[in-house]
Amino acid sequence: MADKAKPTVTEAERAASTVRKILRQAARHVPGLKASHSTTSKRIRGHRTVPKAFIRSMIAVVDDEEALQVMSKFDPEEAQAALQFEAAFRSIVDQLAILQSSLTHTIEERLAVVAGKALRAYAIAKGLARDERSRDLALRVRRLKTALGRKGPRKKKKKPRSPA
What we know:
There is one protein chain. With 164 residues, the chain is mostly helical. It has a domain at 49-148. Helix content is 70%, strand content 0%. The protein contains 6 helices and no strands. It has helices at 11-28, 38-47, 52-64, 66-71, 76-129, 135-148. Helix 3 (52-64) packs antiparallel against helix 5 (76-129) and helix 5 packs antiparallel against helix 6 (135-148). The protein is elongated, with a radius of gyration of 30 Å.
């Protein structure tokens, strides 16, 4: 029976796996973490514009007015806890946004560097493929052209002529 070859795990895959585990572990530490859902997103979006100062003021009003305590569903303790949660976790949301932006930029920058080098190598290969002795290279250049998916230089838009 032949041995099945194990797939090669790259350094990048190991690093990504570590980060994934750290993020999952961090998510477990966020009390009451909920994923976005289409059934609640409209309601949340609509209520997101209510100022925190209004909520703080409502806490004080409900605490002072017994009729509101009985008749409304507003719970001052729940509201205070929500404000504290936002204050504690807002900076983490900002840090994660910075991480996401930096990671996206790093991916794009690394790909741009190798893409630029690949295009320069392609230009050299096209030049070498013009030699009659390089038929194999000419075939590869045609395949590379197909893989590149470009149809040639962009045509410049003609400017309308102004009447003289």
